[in-house]
Design goal:
The structure is a single chain. By secondary structure, this protein is an all-alpha fold. About 70% of the residues lie in helices and about 0% in strands. It has 27 helices and no strands. The protein is rod-shaped. The relative contact order is 0.05.
Length: about 625
Amino acid sequence: MRSIFSISSSPSNSCGSSPLRRTAPSSPRNTFSESMMEENIEIAESIISKWDTEASTYERFSSLFRENRKEAEDFLRSVMGLQRAMHVLVSQSSSSDKLIRAQNLMQIAMKRLELEFYQILDANRDRLHPESVSGRSSRSSARSSASDFENDTGSDDEIQIADKSISEVERVSAVAMSDLKAIADCMISSGYGKECVKIYKLIRKSIIDEGLYLLGVEVLSFSKIQKMDWEVVELKIKNWLHAVKVAIKTLFYGERLICDHVFSASISIRESCFAEITRDGAMNLFSFPEFVAKSKKSPEKMFRILDLYESISDLWPEIEFIFSFESTTAVRSHAISSLVKLGDAVRTMLSDFEHAIQKDSSKLPLPGGGVHPLTRYVMNYLSFLSDYSGILADIVADWPISVQSSLPGSYFDGPGSENSPSSGISLRFAWLVLVLLCKLDGKAKLYKEVSLSYLFLANNLQYVVNKVQTSNLRLLLGEDWVTKHEAKVRRYTANYERMGWIKVFSSLPEDPTAAITQAEATECFKKFNSAFEETYRKQMPWIVTDPKLRDEIKLSLAKKIAPKYREFYEKYRGVLKRGMGFDSVVRFAPDDLDNYLSDLFHGTGASGSSTPTSSSSSSSHSRGWRYR
């Protein structure tokens, strides 16, 4: 080695320079620099040669980072020193023997680091899993738990401290991430980033693909989904709803954290790595809901489509963050595309549902005037649909009802202001209920008996009101809507009573206590008997499905009939008892009327099958209900 005190004997050719300038400054500095450079190369050679992957020694098959972490730290430092030496050598001569020697050493070192990088990734496939990383509270906590390699490699004290706050799995993953970052930083700064990235992508992509496979995420084409029975597709949707949450919140999120940490030295490398590792899996993941949205539609599929929409919508903040790179724009776009197509499918199915109500072609009146199957189907559908009102509000926000202006304003009195998000969906539900009620008005006209038409309308509207009151529809339509339609039920029942019992009401004198002849009293009783028997016989098959409404109608009829008949009965039965044929004239005692009325509206009898004939028959009737 040349002495650091040697001075060049060559004379300077510079004119006008002093002898001191000619001899002193450059030569000692160059000598010192060369001395340090050679020392760096010798130090690097001693440790790098020991871990030469081509050697036939023990070190060839062992792990530097697992066997001796202090030596691993020295190895990385020696590589950095070698790198500095090479910069000096290149500036002096690009073909010197020293530079060739340094380059050979660098290649040996990089092969060792490549092997170490692969071994750490492969050995920690399970422990260095995205789930163990994503389980930490935030990206910053993940980074703080694994500080730079140079600061914590080989520090048993710090590992013991970390052991107190995180699990063993998290501790191992933190150490592994720290080692990987240190190797990646070293290889990238040495110009071997491409080799490092290739290994990382190979291992990590297989982990992501395996994770998606274990979650049941399949590669399905649109044509394959179209050929599946809906029951099969529905099962796949249920599985996807679970899988997408785990994939986004754990698998992709955890991989983003690992990738960001390991390649923190290069934004472009970590973006490239993450994109290539996750893009295919993420694109396939979001293809499924888009294919489902594009398949054949029917109202029964609505709820699963909404589940898919809600899942992506809820996960969108995480999707947007995880795939925020420019190179992962396609994933974000695909998720948005799926969301848009699912929303389009929902709007189409809502329109189809409305048209299905309007086009219901059943022409046979429902026996007894009970709740029509269409009413049950529509209201059950809407009550389930109201559970998705938040998501539906987003979907129909820009989808106004074009015919609203021609409809009564009372149908659109819902909670919330006109411009609130809930207002649009409230109007949509109010409109669908109105479409049903209009259809029921048409079906009521199929009955020959006007009174039965009103009973049919009362039954069906009461069912509608009940469904609204016992579901989220109440919040959407509002208390005013419920109050107005309850009043409409009462009007229907009042019309039923007036039309269905008019003969009975008119058979008794306006003033039951007014003085009339025996013959006139006899005629009144006969008219009442005939009218009551005929009405009773006709209405025995009729039904009121709601127990409360049934009792209200019975009570109302009893109040209109029983007191008046009782007064008339009490005034003239004594007179008529003195004559012949009393039982044939006075066929009903006042208490009998309560019993006969209690038999009505259960839909248990056929028309003409049961006729009240005498007061003695009252004992055979139920006395569970009575007007007081």
